[in-house]
Write a structure and sequence with these properties.
Layout (H helix, E strand, L loop, with lengths): L2 H24 L6 H8 L3 H7 L3 H20 L9 H20 L1 H11 L14 H15 L9 H21 L6 H16 L3
Helix pairs in contact: 1-2, 1-4, 5-7, 5-9, 6-8, 7-8, 8-9
Length: 198
């Protein structure tokens, strides 16, 4: 990577961090590209060199969230534990991260933006690292006989993803006034108990 490319990556990172902070503080719809440019002391040209819209900043944040799961959450899982225990721990760490680092308003805005019919949703991207994490764990669980017979890894991942969306959507609707940690514990406890072979 040459000096110009490194500078470009630095500018892109600065724009993402500033934009996400503004979205978190004031709400996505209340932040303009002009404000992002002003806060980062860059130009509109620099912004549009990296992003076509505010939504693309969110899309980039999605990728960073998934990368965080790969780099920071998965290494915290104990390989000596059962797959069910590791899934339970991963989901707990994930929801704590979303509650403590992203917050309900940014989560709500992500859902709002992902409902747009003008673009495809990152939620549905089959290549998301999140799906790979879950699929790998679920396939291991099937191979070890930890799940009830008749479910494929795809089936189990689908149930878990729908559970995630439900918990996060409900938390967002309640404007963060309920505990995401408690909600996820109840939801995923019930789902994993129902899927478990024991």
């Amino acid at each position: 990577m040459n000096v110009r490319q490194r500078q470009g990556q630095k500018t892109k990172k600065k724009i993402i961090e500033a934009a996400i902070a503004l979205f978190h503080e004031r709400g996505f719809n209340n932040v303009t590209v002009d404000e992002i440019v002003a806060v980062t002391n860059t130009s509109k040209g620099a912004f549009y060199n990296h992003f076509t819209s505010k939504h693309e900043v969110f899309a980039e944040q999605f990728k960073q969230i998934d990368q965080f799961y790969v780099e920071h959450l998965v290494p915290q899982l104990d390989a000596d534990q059962s797959v069910i225990e590791r899934l339970t721990r991963f989901l707990e760490l994930q929801m704590n991260y979303l509650q403590d680092e992203l917050g309900w308003d940014v989560t709500r805005t992500i859902y709002e933006q992902e409902l747009s019919t003008e673009r495809s949703s990152y939620f549905l991207d089959p290549d998301r690292p999140l799906y790979d994490i879950l699929f790998t764990l679920c396939q291991e669980g099937i191979d070890k006989g930890e799940f009830k017979e008749g479910y494929s890894a795809h089936d189990i991942v689908t149930v878990l993803i729908h559970g995630m969306r439900g918990v996060l959507y409900n938390w967002s609707l309640n404007r963060g006034r309920i505990s995401l940690a408690d909600e996820q514990r109840m939801m995923f406890g019930a789902l994993l108990d129902g899927l478990s072979a024991e």
